[in-house]
């Protein structure tokens, strides 16, 4: 039985990074407790606030954000944090080495119906000479990530993480330890399962319309296979399914709001998930380019996402290829 800390030490993870991951996991354990208590603790329901992206915040979004913010800013290795639920990055220790970006509660529309949600995080180095409270410090593409991961709060709580040498899964035990349960996760290259919010179909680009129409034709269509479909509406749960048994997850650009390049956020969802997917042998793309090559210009930037089993993602990209 290998605990998270032991695993990280065995793999020569720097002490300050272990310390930071420790703080992140302490936060996630607290969030897991709040979620478990749910209505008993009176934490479900819609809060008064609206977040920076104009969406209604659930109480637990706010609570989870506050937990992460307080614990991370108390850690001297943290030079700053940026959260989906904060308007601006918040500076930490000016001598700190790391920046942390996070989506404190992903899939929050699922909280009230008691379906899986998660916390997504990404760790970057603080560039020299820029304050960790300054948005410019975070303008680094996904390839610069030192670590990324998520904690899925499902029937059990699972940490899935990469520090750049593979993806590992750790299950939260009754005693409060994250225990290694799956080492070097690999996504199957081929799949017959897709996930997309079909209700947005008429808003997609013709390329995505054509691809999904062919998926739906199954073995009678040009792709020659019968596909299954899943949509949880929690990105964490969808990515976890893909890491576990393969598949393709799509949240493409659509024309509901043409000022946005997608619904999901590059710094809190796109990049951390892409790092995991690539480290597990999968592919992650905007449908045109690799997500981790997108140069961020704004902390709350959106991105179109297509990720999962390499063979299927490549097939989807062929529909989008410009001659
Ligand atoms: O409601 P939709 O359009 O199905 O969108 C679901 C997507 O939105 C998200 O819930 C966005 O994340 P937040 O809950 O953190 O805002 C993703 O987890 C999920 O993939
Ligand atoms: Mg989210
Ligand atoms: Mg969220």
Automatic annotation (TrEMBL):
GO terms for molecular function: fructose 1,6-bisphosphate 1-phosphatase activity; magnesium ion binding. The keyword Metal-binding applies. GO terms for cellular component: cytosol. Its EC number is 3.1.3.11. It catalyses: beta-D-fructose 1,6-bisphosphate + H2O = beta-D-fructose 6-phosphate + phosphate. Gene3D superfamilies: 3.40.190.80, Fructose-1,6-Bisphosphatase, subunit A, domain 1. It is an enzyme of class 3 (hydrolase). Residues 187-320 form the Fructose-1-6-bisphosphatase class 1 C-terminal domain. Residues 4-183 form the Fructose-1-6-bisphosphatase class I N-terminal domain. Its cofactor is Mg(2+). Mg(2+) 2 binds at residues 103, 106, 269. The keyword Metal-binding applies. Substrate binds at residues 106-109, 197, 263. Pfam families: FBPase, FBPase_C. One of its GO terms (biological process) is sucrose biosynthetic process. Binds 2 magnesium ions per subunit. InterPro entries: FBPase_C_dom, FBPase_class-1, FBPase_N, FBPtase. It is found in: Cytoplasm. CDD domains: FBPase. Belongs to the FBPase class 1 family. Homotetramer. This is Fructose-1,6-bisphosphatase class 1. It comes from Amphritea japonica ATCC BAA-1530.
